[in-house]
Structure formats: C-alpha cells, structure tokens
Amino acid sequence: MHQATTTTGGPTLSTRSRLGRRLIQLYAGLALYGASSALLVEAGLGLEPWGVLHQGLAERTGVSIGVVSIIVGAAVLLLWIPLRQRPGLGTVSNVFVVGLAMDATLAAVPDAHGLAVRIPLLLGGIVLNGAATGLYIAAGFGAGPRDGLMTGLHRRTGHSIRLMRTAIEVAVVVTGFMLGGTIGVGTVLYAVSIGPLAQVFLRVFAVPRASDGSTVVAGGQPRGAILRP
C-alpha cells in the first residue's frame, strides 16, 4: 500500500521531491523556451508565429522583444476572463519568465553573421524549443496564456482546436509581418517540426506518479499547451 502522508499528516518526502522536480522542470522549461526564441531571433531566418508579432511590435515601439512578449502575454491572459479559463502557476510564470530569459539570452549571444552560423542557430533554437516545451508542459502546471486562448475559444465557439489554432496563428503572423516581424524558412520549419519534437520531449520528461508508478506528461490542457507556451 502506498503512503501519501507522513505520520504527522504532512506530505511524504517522495511527494515533496516530485513537486520539487516539477517546479524545476517548469522554470527550466520556461527559461529555455525564452532562450530558444532568442536563438531564432539571432538566426534571422524566420520566427515562430507569436515571435513574428513580438518582433514586429518591438520594431515599432522600440521596446525589447522580451518585454513585448511579457506585455502581449499579460494582455492575452486578460482575455481568459470572458472565456472562463483558469490560469495555473505555469500560466502566470510563462508570462514573465519567457520574456526575461529571451532578453537575457539576446544580450549574452553575439550577433550572428553568415549562414554557417545562422543555420545552426535556427536548428538549435527549434530543437531547444521542443525540449523546453516538453519540460514545462510535463511539469503539469497549466497551459501558456496563448494556448489557453486557443482552447478557450474552442470551448466557447464549438470550433475545432485545429481551426482555432490556425485562425489565431495566421492572424498573429500576418499582423506581425505587417509590423516588421521576420517570416522565412525558419517559420515554416518551426511549424512542421515543433509538434513532433514537443511530443517526443513530453515523454522524455514525464513525471512519475506516486500511487501506481505510471507517468504524467501534463496537467490541465496538454493538447493546447503543446503548441505554444
């Protein structure tokens, strides 16, 4: 029989250690997600859909792309209210950690010149993004604000998640491109590879359950969360 509490009624060491692992995964995943987005910016060969919007807004406002990411994430989170979505720790942390990590990485990484450097940065950024997605979603602390918007619209309208995702990301890319964001081969490569990559890393970073030895790869809304933190 599995023991869920100590003799004093508190959580067991196993329970605390799992929570500790999940928190580490959450914040490591979010930080790496911001770093991976920064690598895509440095590569200059095309960004992920929301990155196109963030870059376009940054170009127009003069605000750093990381700060723009935070502002946009907070604005999207406000849209959860009429959709009756409930944010988790991962949702709120996503808003701030990704943007801060992105700006920190951009400040630390030197400018890339030449395709011999930019292509590896692009490929590394996409793979790292997939790993980061697996890390933070497998922690099970809730979907990112942008994916919560997608799943919330799905529930409210009755339209498929695929349709909602496509509509939102097309609107985001077009708006970002018109504002000066970068669209290129990286945008296409990201779109076709991030799903399979994230799914692989979700399994790699799955957190074991205490009760039956099985694993959990996400809590809340994994299908939505896998697409974008």
Automatic annotation (TrEMBL):
Q: Which Pfam families does this entry report, sorted A to Z?
A: DUF6198
- Keywords noted in UniProt: Membrane, Transmembrane, Transmembrane helix
Where does the sequence pass through the membrane? Answer: 23-41, 61-81, 88-109, 121-145, 166-192
InterPro entries assigned to the protein according to its UniProt record, in alphabetical order: YczE/YyaS-like (IPR038750)
State the protein's name: Integral membrane protein
